[in-house]
Prior knowledge:
Elements: H1 8-42, H2 45-52, H3 60-78, H4 84-111, H5 115-135
Amino acid sequence: MTTTTLSPIQSRSRAAYRNVALWTLQGWIAMFFIAAGYAKLTEPMTNLINLMGWPAVAPENMVRGLGVVEVVLALGVLSPLISWRVGRPLLLTAAAGLTVMEATMLTVHALNQDIGLAVVNAVLLALTIPVLLGRRKA
């Protein structure tokens, strides 16, 4: 077994690429959940039922509340833009909250055999988990 030692420049370069990749994922996650939350807050329930189906069996207050939660968590994912010291714990909390929400919704959609929405939640999990794991390391 051989070990490879990276020069300080190579090490910083890898860290920079990793940081850019994580920020890109964070931006995509935030854009998706701000848009989804905004739609749940502003669209009439008939439009939401046509788009997603599940709001037909959920109370309107729950759908609107989920929209608020999505927007707040999305803003939490972007909170390190203001201050890394304060924003990092918010980012980790938001990423963990989104992971739980996405996993729950993936399960619900899979059990209801709504494959399209289940796949969307699986993709969102694939974007959020690397952010959660990558940002917890400092």
